[in-house]
Write a structure and sequence with these properties.
Elements (H helix, E strand, L loop, with lengths): L3 E4 L1 H11 L7 H12 L4 E4 H13 L6 H4 L4 E3 L10 H22 L5 H7 L1 H36 L7 H32 L2
Antiparallel strand pairs: 1-2, 1-3
Pfam families: Vma12 (PF11712)
Subcellular location: Endoplasmic reticulum membrane
InterPro entries: ATPase_Vma12
């Protein structure tokens, strides 16, 4: 917390002019001002001394105002020194933090049971899901290969019937569509059979 001003040469000059009057300056005020007035550069003056100076100037009826004197001054804010922490308090806070972290961990893992995982065989369920995905990928790949092969066979085989490329492509698309629809029919019937089994 600020308790003094940092004053410069301008403050010293104004105060020296004010104190050169014929009125007697109180001894305690003069004693407090002498080190500041004799020094050079920046020095600090306490608020208490500034109040005494202001009271003295008002008493002698001087028309000078305090803010004019302190025009080139700044508040002196001492550097805050952080007090050392109490070791008992630090140890207690660490215990509380550890306890809260443990409670948070227990809250997050309260529905996890390691025995349940090994009993039901989560890895076995994962294996079933992988096999199911593998079957689906192979089925789609088989469907695509069958349709492409049917198109290629129809396109190549139609060169003996049609001479124009457009007719060959149309016949190949029709043959691939028929094979694709047949393949989808078989696939749906197989899936119905798989789903119907318990």
């Amino acid at each position: 917390m600020a308790s003094s001003f940092v004053v410069g040469d301008q403050f010293r000059e104004k105060v020296k002019e004010l104190l050169d009057t014929e009125s007697p300056v109180p001894a305690d005020l003069l004693e407090e001002l002498e080190p500041i007035l004799d020094g050079e550069g920046e020095s600090s003056i306490r608020f208490k001394t500034v109040r005494k100076l202001n009271t003295y100037l008002q008493k002698i009826g001087h028309p000078s105002y305090l803010h004019e004197l302190l025009e080139d001054s700044m508040l002196f804010l001492p550097e805050y020194k952080k007090p050392p922490r109490n070791p008992e308090l630090v140890a207690r806070l660490e215990k509380i933090k550890a306890k809260l972290a443990n409670e948070e961990y227990n809250r997050m893992t309260r529905n996890v049971n390691t025995q349940e995982i090994s009993r039901h065989g989560t890895l076995a369920d994962f294996g079933k899901q992988v096999r199911s995905a593998k079957t689906a990928v192979l089925t789609v790949f088989n469907f695509l290969v069958t349709v492409v092969a049917a198109f290629a066979c129809a396109y190549i085989g139609s060169q003996y019937i049609f001479t124009e490329t457009t007719a060959r492509v149309i016949s190949a698309v029709i043959a691939a569509s028929v094979v694709g629809l047949a393949e989808l029919y078989v696939l749906v019937r197989t899936m119905e059979g798989d789903l119907g089994e318990p």
